[in-house]
Amino acid sequence: MIITGHRGALGTEPENTLRSFRRAVADGCDEIELDLRVSADGELVIMHDATVDRTTSGSGAVEELTLAELRALDAGLGEQVPTWTETVAAIDVRFQAEVKAEAAVPLLAQSLKSDRALAERTLVTSFHPEILLAVREAFPDVTTGHIFGRTPDTAEIITRTRAAGATWSLCGIAGLTPDAVADLHAAGLSVTAWPVPDPETLTKATALAADGITTDNPHLLQHL
Fold first, then answer.
1. pTM (predicted TM-score)
2. β-strand 168-172 against 122-126: which pairing, if any?
C-alpha cells in the first residue's frame, strides 16, 4: 500500500514546503502529495489555495504575484514557496501532483515530457475532469487520478473516473467499503483512500484493501 504525505507532513510542518516534503519522506512516505499553481510570470509553484493569505506572511492571488514576490514570503518557519522544478530535484520519491489551476497543465505536461523518469513517478490528480483530460491530451502517457470528496456510489466513481481518462480513483474513506474497492479493482481502477489521520483509520484502510492512503500525519503511522 502506497503511503502518501498530504502536502508533505501537513500535521507537523508548514504545508507544501520542502521542509514538509522532507519530513514526510523521513516519516516513511512512499509518495508526496502537492498542489500546483502558476505565478504571474509563468512559473509552476506549489500552493494549495488560490491566494497566499492562509499559508504565508503575504496576501494576494498566486496568479497575480511573480515568483520573486512569492519567494519573498515566509511560508512557515522561514520556508519559501517552492517551485515544481526544485521540488522534484530535491525529493526522490513518487509525486501525487494535484493541478489546482488549468494554467499549470501545459507547464506540467512539458516537464513530464522532458523527463520520462519523473513522469513515471508522478500521478497527476484533480477534482476536475476537464483538467485531467487536458493533461492527457497534452501528454498521453501520463498517469492520472480523479479525486472525489464525498465518495459517490461505486458505479458513479467508475463512470466519472473513466470519463476523465483516469486510472486512479482517490476516494473519501468515509464512503468506502471493501466491496466498493473490490468493484473498482474489477473495473481496472486503482484506489486511494483519504484522509487517514491516525492508526485507527489506517486499520480501516488496510481492511478496505486500497492501493494507497493519504495522510496528514505520517509520523503517527510510522511504526505501523
1. 0.97
2. unpaired
